[in-house]
Amino acid sequence: MNDEYAGDSSQWAFGTGFEDPLAGVDTTVPQGVDPAELAAYCLMLGDDALIMSQRLSEWCSRAPDLEEDIALANMALDLLGQARLLLARAAAADPGVVPALPEGSPVPAEDALAFFRDAEQFRNVRLAEVENGDFAHVVVRLLLFSVARLALLERLRTSPDQVLAAVAAKGVKEITYHRDWAGRWFLTLAQGTEESRRRLETALEALWPYQAELLAPHTGFGVDPATLRGEVDVVLDQVFAVSGVERPGDAPPSDAGREPIGGTGRELPGGTGRDGAHTAALAPLLAEMQVVARAHPSGRW
Amino acid sequence: MSADRREWPLYEVFVRGKRGLNHVHVGSLHAADDAMAVRHARDVYTRRNEGVSIWVVRADAITASSPDEKDPMFAPSGDKVYRHPTFYDIPDNVPHM
């Protein structure tokens, strides 16, 4: 390796090796914070990033242009990096969340969480897991996802947990770009051709019902996503306004296979992705993502 | 990629590695407009921490010398060795030379 670059490995997203991502970081849980609650919160955010990353990486070699192909892969890698740190944080805070592996397995805790849990143990929002569609679909998915995630990470920069605060500070820069990318493409497709607008509106209609889950109330440690609704709405309404797209009405996901209860239309019987109630799309995604790691539980990577 | 769509215009990309160095031509890309070209350049050419500044310019805005003019353009300077400032003795106390 060129010495000029080898000198400072901290400039690389993962360092130049694949050692413990939290090496050298004080992972002591701060006083007054319940370790189990902290771990649950980090799992939730880590799973969002991991599953979203996997869906984005499925775009590799399929985007309309080489340049957008790389853009999508870059964003997938940003989210994978966030997932790695957040899952490592969850494991360090509460080792009880890590699935048991064979004695002597060299699999690190964050990998055990990513590759050795089943669908109902994942806590990601269903917006992240639903099947990919066309290019408009990934634009809308990323817009809804990154507007909410950016609002959340901005608040988490002042989290009492220093590790989570640092992960959030790093993530804010990344997600700011993702939101910019998605917002620009949303506008471009909306104001492009009849066909691009039709596809955008179709994607928005399909994905909008999953948006509310990003802002579902969360009790316990961490910023409650429900408190972000105001600022998320402001940003989304701005994007809709400049794009000349009407804000969709709130309705539960039509393809979730469950009937809504109550008047809000936002809750489903059996819970949401946050409770481990997922769409049928998650299990096949996990099967593909986990197959190699599960085939070699004692493998070294 | 569909074969029938009209191609976006070609842009040439220049990236500055760090403060004090020049922007260097690193390659080209396609984009619909200038703003998209900067973002594409960021995604394609600065993934490995290469840059702190990006210039993009539409390739058709560049005026280039022609290979046909190579001799009249460049050959005359080939034997003018005295144009190099190598015939001076630089005093030891002159820095940055």
Brief summary:
Chain A has 301 residues and is mainly alpha-helical. Chain A has helices spanning 3-6, 35-57, 66-93, 109-115, 126-129, 135-156, 162-190, 194-207, 229-243, 282-295. Helices cover 53% and strands 0% of the residues of chain A.
Q: Could you explain the architecture of this structure?
A:
The complex is a heterodimer of chains A (301) and B (97). By secondary structure, chain A is mostly helical. Chain A has a single domain (30-295), classed as Ferritin. In chain A, 53% of the residues lie in helices and 0% in strands. Chain B has a domain at 10-64: Roll (Ubiquitin-like (UB roll)), CATH 3.10.20.520. A three-stranded antiparallel beta sheet of chain B has the order 2-1-3, covered by helices on one side. Chains A and B meet through helix 3 and helix 7 of A and helix 1 of B.
> What is the distance, rounded to the nearest whole angstrom, between the alpha carbons of the first and last residues of chain A?
20 Å
Number of strands of chain B: 3
Overall mean pLDDT score of chain A? 89
Please identify, by name, the CATH architecture of chain A. Up-down Bundle
Task: Give helix and strand order of chain A, one letter per element, not per position.
Answer: HHHHHHHHHH
User: Total number of β-strand segments of chain A?
Assistant: 0
Shape of chain A: globular
CATH superfamily of the domain at 10-64 in chain B: Phenylacetic acid degradation B
Flag low-confidence runs of chain A.
1-7, 257-269
CATH topology of chain A: Ferritin
Radius of gyration from the alpha-carbon trace of chain B, in angstroms: 20 Å
Radius of gyration of chain A: 19 Å
For the record, the CATH class of the domain at 10-64 in chain B is Alpha Beta
Reading side by side through the largest sheet of chain B, how are the strands ordered? 2-1-3
**Total number of helices of chain B:** 2
CATH architecture field of the domain at 10-64 in chain B: Roll
What's the domain count of chain A? 1
Measured by DSSP, the beta-strand proportion of chain A falls in under 5%
Which structural class do you get from the secondary structure elements of chain B?
alpha+beta
- Major sheet description of chain A: none
Pfam family, one (chain A): PaaA_PaaC
GO cellular component, one term (chain A): cytosol
InterPro entries (chain A): Aromatic_CoA_ox/epox, Ferritin-like, Ferritin-like_SF, PaaA_PaaC, PaaC
Biased composition (Gly residues) (chain A): 260-274
